[in-house]
Amino acid sequence: TGNLVTTELVVELADSEETDLVIKAGVQDFLLSNQFVSKILAQVSQEPGVMSVYRYLFSAEGSEMYIKPIELFFPPEKLGKLSFADCVFAAQSRNEICIGVKITSQSQDKQKNFGIYIAPSLETQFDLTIEDELITIAEDEI
Predict the structure, then answer these.
(1) Are the C-beta atoms of 98 and 134 separated by less than 8 Å?
(2) Model pTM score
(3) Which residues are bridge partners to 98 per DSSP?
């Protein structure tokens, strides 16, 4: 058809030792399922009441997790030094729950968890740019 096809590949990894291979293959988004499940189990063991929240989130009727462009939450002139609390409040204004931040400039840096920050403290400061994204729980993709 002559149209440029852009396909994004998302991978679930069972073994964190394979992250270098996935990055070399050009995959931008991946989930380390063993770490994800371990963190949920650890939280539930400390706070059993959150199990009902996870049950809802992972049900067919529940909300979904999205990685959304930062401009849905902040106008470009407001970007720069912002706290995670600022991100949480911005998401709340859209009836969403912000659970993390994705810093695009760190997406190839294994030492910085590939730019993914899940549930940082509310005081954590980020230098956010138009390329960055918020990780939210929401009813709708946009």
Answers:
(1) yes
(2) 0.69
(3) 136
